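We treat protein structure as text, and this decision shapes the records that our systems exchange. We quote a single record here, exactly as it is kept in our systems:
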Amino acid sequence: MVHSDNDPYLAEIVAGYSTVITVVTCNITVAVPIFYDYVLPFDQEARIIWRARFSSLALLFYIVRYAAFFSFILIVLDVTAFPFIMC
């Protein structure tokens, strides 16, 4: 079966695919500077925070810094995996 250029179903698929590509591209564009922000001071963090004695302030630091990091990773993976889900 060959689809013509006027097929509304095909146009809907192309529009949906275009939207998915745009969303994935935007998420990756936002993710890169955030990941860079986590990687850049990593050596200082390992030297200063990780070697210090564990305290409530260190716990607060870990929760705030890494909860946001891991939740953002999950959001990017969830949206990025969307094009591969076939309904």
Q: What stands out?
A: The mean pLDDT is 79. DSSP finds three helices and no strands in the chain.
